[in-house]
Amino acid sequence: MGTIVRAPEHKEFTPAPEGMHRAVCVDVLDSWTDPRPAEFGGGLVEKTRLVWEIDALMDDGRAFTASQFYTASLHEKAKLRQHLESWRGRAFTEQELQGFDLENVVGKPCQLQIIHHTTRQGKTYANVQTIVPVGKGAQPLTSSGDYTRVKDRPKDGAGDGCEEDSVPF
Q1: Neighbouring C-beta atoms of residue 158, cutoff 10 Å
Q2: For the segment 13-32, what is each residue's pLDDT rounded down to a tens digit?
Q3: With 0-12 CB in 10 A as exposed, 13-18 as middle and 19+ as buried, what is 84?
Q4: pLDDT tens string for the chain (169 positions)?
Q5: Do residues 66 and 49 touch, judged by C-beta distance below 8 A?
């Protein structure tokens, strides 16, 4: 079977609230490649995404999640490196820069500063501006258990609704 494509579902969502929040990392998505904009030299760039639960609750009582896309790089100017060093409270060693396993951050507490960005189309997104360690004496947040990691979710094995005999071309 080949690649199945579908029209996107229209989903209404409320972005995580702005401000400083206690959080815990609940997922790291495997890296993928995206095209790099021409103004940045073109080509392909490896990306990843981190996901956190925060200490604010949605109307249904579940914890809000916040996520941030990153270039999968520990270059000195990379946002991922800056966020990880700020979160850890120290710079990476030369040895750590040779290869850092992002799985190490899953389950680790922190504080996130979230700011909202509204697109020209009027859609509001919650962006992780800053990540810092949990303050001294503060109670670290733990996962609610409601979030299922992307790698652990069931694969969509349902029929694609298109039988070979019914294809109109």
Answers
A1: 8
A2: 899 999 999 999 999 998 88
A3: buried
A4: 566 777 767 677 899 999 999 999 999 998 888 887 788 788 888 999 999 999 999 999 999 999 999 999 999 999 999 999 999 999 999 999 999 999 999 999 999 999 999 999 999 999 999 999 999 999 999 999 999 999 999 986 544 444 444 444 4
A5: no
Cβ contacts of 160-169, under 8 Å, gap ≥ 24: 160/1, 160/4
Buried b (16+ CB within 10 A) or exposed e, 42-79: eeebebbbbbbbbeeeeeeeebbbbbbebbbebeeeee
Cβ neighbours, 10 Å, residue 133: 16
Question: How many CA atoms, within 13 angstroms, populate the side-chain half-sphere of residue 103?
Answer: 4
3-state secondary structure of 150: helix
162 alpha carbon, distance to own chain's centre: 33
SS3 content of the chain, % helix, strand, coil (to 5): 15, 35, 50
